[in-house]
Amino acid sequence: MTAALIPLAEWGSRHFDPPKSIHTLRRWVRDNRILPAPVKAGREYRVHPNAQYVGNQTDEVVRGIIGE
């Protein structure tokens, strides 16, 4: 059985202290920084409870290329 998806704001408050603003969380969704990717259900995003913030992976790739 799969876990029920939770609202994005609830996920943010579970994973960050203090919680991130809903605007920041929505930007992360648009920038594909939360995996597995949230699903838009009506007017809100719903997220797997165990989803993770993955940050900006482009920075890691650039650092690897330039040897930092």
Model description:
With 68 residues, the protein is α+β, with helices and mostly antiparallel strands. It has a domain at 1-47: Multidrug-efflux Transporter Regulator, Chain: A, Domain 2 (Orthogonal Bundle), CATH 1.10.1660.20. 40% of the residues lie in helices and 19% in strands. It contains three helices and five strands. The protein has helices at residues 8-15, 22-30, 57-66; strands at 6-7, 34-35, 39-41, 44-47, 52-53. The strands form two sheets. Strands 1-4-3 form a three-stranded antiparallel sheet. It is elongated. It starts with 5 loop residues before the first strand and ends with a helix.
N-to-C CA distance? 43 Å
Class computed from helices, strands and strand pairing:
alpha+beta
Spatial ordering of strands, largest sheet: 1-4-3
Average pLDDT, to the nearest integer?
88
In short:
By secondary structure, the protein is an alpha+beta fold. The protein is built from 3 helices and 5 strands; from the N terminus they run βααββββα.
